Amino acid sequence: MPTPSFVPLLSYQRLPEPEMLAQATAFAERMATRRTVRDFSTDPVPQAVIEQALRAAITAPSGANQQPWRFVAIKDPSIKKQIREAAEAEEREFYEHRAPDEWLAALAPLGTDAEKPFLERAPWLIAIFYERFGLDDQGEKVKRYYPHESVGLASGLLIAALHQAGLATLTHTPSPMGFLNDILGRGKNEMPYLLLVVGYPEPDCQVPNISRLPFETTVQFR
Ligand code: IYR
Questions:
Q1: Where does the Nitroreductase domain lie (predicted)?
Q2: Is 37-202 a domain of CATH 3.40.50.620?
């Protein structure tokens, strides 16, 4: 059993209250401008920007600090093409057979269908996996704690970081996503979590006419 070891918290900087409120307000206003986009431009995005956003993502807290997230950032057109073909095959099954009417009704306001051109058009796809279990030096399974929660937190930070950098994203979840393991050569212990599509919106991009719930509906102070 390892013994705990502590170091001083040197990175923390407490803000004066007015600046704290100004920062919090600016960030909330910035995030309120985020929209999920499906019409992506083919304009390239520098890899360095994607890398910095991923550096932000991997600062997320995680169960037992196991950092179970794994990110694969894809710009290679041939890999994007394979992903599009595999995703569209699953999506056709979904829209034509698998999805119950209730689910299709819930999706109707988004105007989605089985065609996923953005998987080839967008300059970057980020495949996000979580480790269902780790593997030690001997190849033995090591239990992971709260992997779903952890990867969700990291994904949220990634979306915020990309938005802050002026990029648009789509959280895409073709189901099932096992094809990502095959195409990207990832181990069976890695579970695909989501496929984040990243790039610029098309100049004539339209988004669904939907809105966020009122603040008071989802937040309570006691
Ligand atoms: N994966 C499908 C369907 C879909 C499901 C949900 I829940 C969404 O919020 C959006 C779409 C698709 O991408 O079309």
A1: 32-200
A2: no
